[in-house]
Amino acid sequence: MNSFSAVHGASCSPCTPLSPKPQQLSPTVSNGRPVARRAPPRRLPPSFSVSPRRVPMGGGEGGGSGSGWQQEQQEPAMSGDGGEDLAAFVALHGAALRASCVPARYWESLRRKLRGEVFDAGDYFGIMQVEEVDEEEEGDEDMEEELKKKPNPGNEPCFKVIVTNENGLQASNPDSIFLIDHAWTYRVEHARQQLLHVPGLLHRMANLMRIDFHGEIPDEGSIEQVLQEMWKYNQTYQLSQGTAEEKVPVWYVMDEFGSRIQHSDQPSFATAPLFYMPQQIAYTVLWPLRDLETGEEVTRDYAYGERDHLIRKCVLLPWVSAGVLDVNCFTPEPSDEHYQAILAENKEKLPIAINPPVYDKDKVFKVFTDIQQVLNSLTHPRFVFTDNEREADILYNFSHFKDYRKLSEERPEVMLNQFPCESLLTVKDCLASISRRAGGPDGPRWLPRTFNLQTELPQFICYFQQRERRGEDNHWICKPWNLARSLDTHITNSLNNIIRHRESSPKVVCKYIENPVLFHREEVGMVKFDIRYVVLLRSIKPLKLYIYDVFWLRFSNRAFSLDDLDDYEKHFTVMNYAPGVTLKQVHCEEFIPMFEKQYPEYPWTTVQANIFKAFAELFEVASAKPAPLGICDYPSSRAIYAIDLMLKWDTSRDGAEMTRQVGGGWRVKQQDCEEIPLHCCIFILSEALD
């Protein structure tokens, strides 16, 4: 008989995710060494609008990160017909322009240029090639020192944008704002296929990135080079509204003019992406930060908004080599203030202490829920539904519940399916932090190295570089804090790639399982698979966690190998959301004998016992500290979770197989089987099974 197994001495909390933060259009800065071309034409080459340059939008977008260009904003006067047009433009785009610190004096001119698609940069700017330093001059210390002071040090040829207008450029001129077109707009998972199949795209990108490609037919070598180099040229924005799929970051490469604008710590210009609503097209906007004379260079800050010297050094690594970072790779737990800030950001109000409620044995509970499958499936006679939340005995909500204080004061007997501060389990960066409480400085054995790219970037880079020097595997998986279903999740061994992904949305990066335990599919070969367990959290104090002994399995559709990192069906198992993709499922009762036949030295009972032990340890540390540093004890709370797992071979330093590890991505799942949009990065590793 199927049942829940109780795990005592450990506790889980109900995982209600943090609501995804509304993200406005968030520009990123990037550039590399552009290709040779004279001054840009009036209308630059056509864009490759594959993958969405024209993106359906449900609402407006905000601009960049407010990068520190603190310019005085004075709203333009609006009168007459032109004023009405400007007022409509500001109503649609004002939030984006303010967030990007675009001075208001440029807004009317920007409106006209956007409406008329006016690309007049060629009237003001030209492109200059910087010559290589002759070998005889290399010994000249004064010249070498002078070169180091320039925005783009180095001896290789480089193209720069300069002001060519004979009158220079005045920042006070309302017309001193310019449009930059986007040569290629895409989402990362589509990049390879677009380079392979969109006519002319590979040739243009190769030329722009100074990669030798002269053939007519795309070849894998050239495509791979572009996929590596593009992280020096990529920029990104993100839609603020829409479905989870629509809000996955969009990446783009500016046209040949924009891609030649070089970096400087003292930039002369600022840029920001802007989504023009009437045409549903994204452009980059360029404007001066000061007056420039003829011949002065146009530069921008690739690390805009970053004030900390070490972080700037890290962010600029794709363009400015800085050698090995001399920092400690240790990642301490965040301060108490960090958790207080999370509580405030979530707008949660902690409950007052209450006594555990006592109910009559024959009580019929009134249930208020917004989950359709609960409405369809809950048929037990002791439960009835109500549309009045105020009279409900049980709140079973899909949305994030916040005001526990009011509920505990006014209706402490009302049960609900969430716990206060449960985001410590349901959001990836928090989960990584609390998991490290177990097992010493490096965390428990079931936690592979995980870094928060927003707060632990230097430590990650140092660790990556150390592994690189030792010749160790350096494949990593980069995940958003608060998305599920493998959305915006990428596997890479490129440091530049990971550094740049930090700019699109908050992410963590975890060591990728390079040697997973595989399952033999007769029709495919040895594939990755994951396992889902459902757990029920009954209480925090005392800790009571129950685990359902029926588990679910999913499989990759292609044989595993540590290559083709953008091949979704090889490296991922979440196939149930992709249209037209095969979803392979095997019932657990069928799987166990198949697994034991393939791995007879590892009985499933032993594997499962170690999995449960890892669960217990995680939930112990998650609830060991008082809220908001840990899950809050609230006697009226209950929770159901789903935990997705992977098995991994562990090896000793000499390569001998030592243990199996269990790697897991956490997802919260309500009883209605509707998945809350979270996919956590922690990999749970068991102790030795031999």
Automatic annotation (TrEMBL):
Residue ranges annotated as compositionally biased, kind Polar residues, are 13-31
Q: Region (Disordered) spans which residues?
A: 1-82, 133-156
Q: Would you name any one GO CC term? A: cytoplasm
Q: Show where the Tubulin--tyrosine ligase-like protein 12 SET-like domain sits.
A: 149-321
Tell me which PROSITE patterns the record gives: TTL (PS51221)
Biased composition annotated in UniProt, kind: Acidic residues: 133-145
Q: Where does the record place Low complexity bias?
A: 45-56
- A Pfam match: TTL
Protein name, UniProt field: Tubulin tyrosine ligase like 12
